[in-house]
Design goal:
This protein is mainly beta. It has 2 helices and 32 strands. It has a single domain, classed as YVTN repeat-like/Quinoprotein amine dehydrogenase (Methylamine Dehydrogenase, Chain H).
Length: 347
């Protein structure tokens, strides 16, 4: 099946902001960061999904389109997928294949290098009615989590890079009003060939860990307030033991309490940050020794494993990705920020 490709000559709005000149973004505080803002479309859309490949930034957007922005040429390709009737919530790059996730319609699409694509169904499972929340890959091992169906979480895995998906063998019951938040596609993580983790929120918020690809699960309750808009939105396990979860209540974006929790024992126990981020956060990511989290009222960073956070700016931000040297953050109105750091603080 072919898709239409339009090449957009979209120039970058480049804001080279660092040192004292960063005050406009950081309210007078100097920081060792440079920020460049790129515009990949004139549509008034935003991206909850972002993926990177060399000099190309891929975004999966609220208008149901996918854009590939070349950082060198500052031009974007636009892809339209006929079956996409709503908002994309996640995008992953596995080899040369882009895997796109649309939550409300249970649509998963493999987009190939030659411009063709195919929709994907799980083996022996109809997931058309599954509200998908997030997915993650490590090599060809992938894990996808969706909201509960008939009181059981919708959990799937793949071992061939997303060509074939199967339901995880172990059924995992949910509480009434418990689900995932499809805010940035980062509420799930593949830690190694056999270990999957994910978080839930709503009337009950929990951390789930399986070391056998979803056959059995270890579960820990999280101290987020119990209501439909509150809970864990994103997690980042730095290693087998150390991890960070961010979230909060998206209807109370400035509420700082209960927005970040840390573990040092692989998720068995969680403690609040001593100085939390500036409010509700939808995504958290590691870049070297730094951590970043973003949300409705800004981006924060931590240099001590999430114990304390400092504000970077007050921009409305959705999702993040890194190539190990830079951070890319999606913004409203078809834009993303490219953030560069001083090597001294990154390493």
């Amino acid at each position: 099946m072919n898709i239409s490709i339009n090449v957009l000559g979209v120039c970058s709005l480049i804001l080279c902001l660092h040192g004292p000149s960063f005050g406009q973004l950081n309210k007078g505080r100097s920081t060792p960061f440079e920020v460049f803002v790129h515009s990949y479309t004139t549509d008034s859309c935003y991206a909850r999904g972002i993926a990177l490949s060399k000099n190309v930034v891929y975004t999966a957007n609220s208008n149901g389109k996918v854009y590939a922005y070349d950082l060198t040429s500052q031009k974007a390709k636009e892809w339209e997928i006929a079956e996409a009737t709503g908002e994309f919530r996640d995008i992953e790059l596995v080899g040369d294949t882009l895997i796109l996730m649309q939550s409300g319609t249970g649509l998963l699409v493999n987009l190939y290098k030659d411009g063709s694509y195919r929709t994907v169904q799980a083996e022996n499972s109809n997931w058309d009615s599954v509200f998908m929340d997030g997915m993650d890959f490590l090599g060809k091992i992938g894990f996808l989590m969706g909201d509960p169906t008939n009181g059981v979480f919708s959990l799937f895995n793949t071992t061939d890079g997303g060509t074939c998906w199967k339901k995880c063998e172990g059924e995992l019951s949910s509480y009434e009003g418990e689900a995932g938040f499809a805010a940035s596609g980062t509420n799930v993580q593949v830690l190694n060939d056999s270990t999957f983790v994910f978080v839930s929120g709503g009337n009950k918020s929990r951390f789930f860990k399986s070391t056998d690809r979803g056959r059995t699960w270890e579960i820990t309750s999280l101290a987020f307030p119990s209501n439909p808009s509150s809970g864990a939105y994103s997690l980042c396990m730095i290693d087998e033991f150390q991890g960070i979860i961010v979230g909060g209540d998206y209807t109370k974006p400035n509420e700082r309490k209960n927005t970040c929790f840390l573990t040092l024992d692989g998720g068995k126990t969680w403690q609040q940050s001593k100085k939390p981020p500036g409010g509700y956060r939808s995504c958290v990511i590691q870049v070297g020794k730094m951590l970043f989290c973003c949300g409705t009222n800004g981006i924060d960073y931590s240099l001590n494993g999430g114990k304390t956070w400092k504000p970077l700016n007050d921009w409305n931000s959705f999702s993040m990705a890194t190539n190990g040297n830079e951070l890319f953050v999606t913004l409203p109105m078809g834009k993303f920020a490219e953030i560069r750091f001083d090597n001294q603080i990154r390493n």
